[in-house]
Amino acid sequence: MKEKKIHLLLAVLATGIMSFAGVLIETAMNVTFPTLINQFGISTGMVQWVTTIYLLVISIMVPFSNYLLKNFSIRKLFIVANLFFIAGLVIDLWSPSFSILLFGRLLQGVSTGIALPLMFHIILNFTPMHKRGTMMGVGTLTTSIAPAIGPTYGGIMTASLSWHAIFLFLLPVLAISLVIGLYAIPEMPVKKTGALDIVSLLGVALLFSGLLLFLNQIGSLLGLLSLAVGIVGFLIFYRQATRGKNPLVRIAVLKNKVFVLFLCGFLVCQFLLLGISFVLPNFIQIVLGKDAFIAGLVMMPGAAVGAILAPISGRVLDTFGSKKPILLGLSFATIGWIALTLLLRSPILLGFVAGHVFYMIGIGFAYSNLMTTGMNLLSEEEYGDGNTLFNTLQQFSGAIATAIVATIINLAQQSQSDFIAATVTGSQISLLVLLALLVAVFIASLIHFRKEPKLG
Question: How many domains does the chain have?
Fold first, then answer.
């Protein structure tokens, strides 16, 4: 019955375009950071808030969307999200100051925070199980490929026109998304289930805000106070999640250790996607002296490979199970990441292209399949909570990754007199930290699949 009420592929496409646009801007703005620093007279630590505030808002909105999906129709939510995004684009297109730019990014974060869980909600509730891998591959294409395409898009716009053009050319894209969504997503009645847990939402806001401020103010009194705020937020959220009548998220799904493994693997992949999208374009501009266009162009081949592999990898999972694509993907990603880390000391543009392509082959096979495999372990009643955890932590992990690499590079730049050498050192340390996480996930997955050879 459900499949007859909604044009599934078009509905996923409409919400996917909106999610894609959100994540695209996320990394497209990274290549503009040197330009924004000069134009607005701000530091490296300050400019990364263009990305961080966006991801912070998404991290708060996604748990809230779990409540929205239970109480409002998917059509209404789609329209609201789309209009918020368009408003954010118009504001950033005009933005005469850094604070107004951040406000526009905030509105875009609200939109993407609704669009991402909405897209996966449609996939999980309207797609037959035997086709879910393929559809999840199409869905996660937005969050895995957009970070890689973003620097290319941002570089072309900034070098040929202006960073404002990044927002201008997405306005017709959002208009197309709106038209498709209005056609494909019908008005469907919703049985309202429970009231909004305001206390939980407050806890989430304090948790994510405190931790991000801490990462941006490490070593200062403000940083310690921010950490304390984050801890208080976690305690509030945890108490409500375990004792509240209508918690935003039921964290009982985290008792499933295998689900947690795939969730962690998925989050590490997100760490890598956002980390390299910050480090590599800025490295190419600052250290190699290339413009934003070249910095973005280096990322394009890898993005194309990842785009091709995302839906294909889902079909591989539907056909052969989860073990082969996940382990193959993590292997390729590890090799490519090691190559990128080593190349920072002896930079070669074509070497960066090759390393990034190899790494994106791995992401193409592993990323969406980690989420699909994790979600397949849950019951239908747990889909909303699992979906919320994946999307909330995905965005927050992206914010953490951006904050961590920006902080490491900033600290290195401040500790050495040679700005270029300090940028090289900071960039390499950043990639080594993320490499350690990737290796840990790969080893844990290898151990799991050896114990459970019949899984998937």
Answer: 2
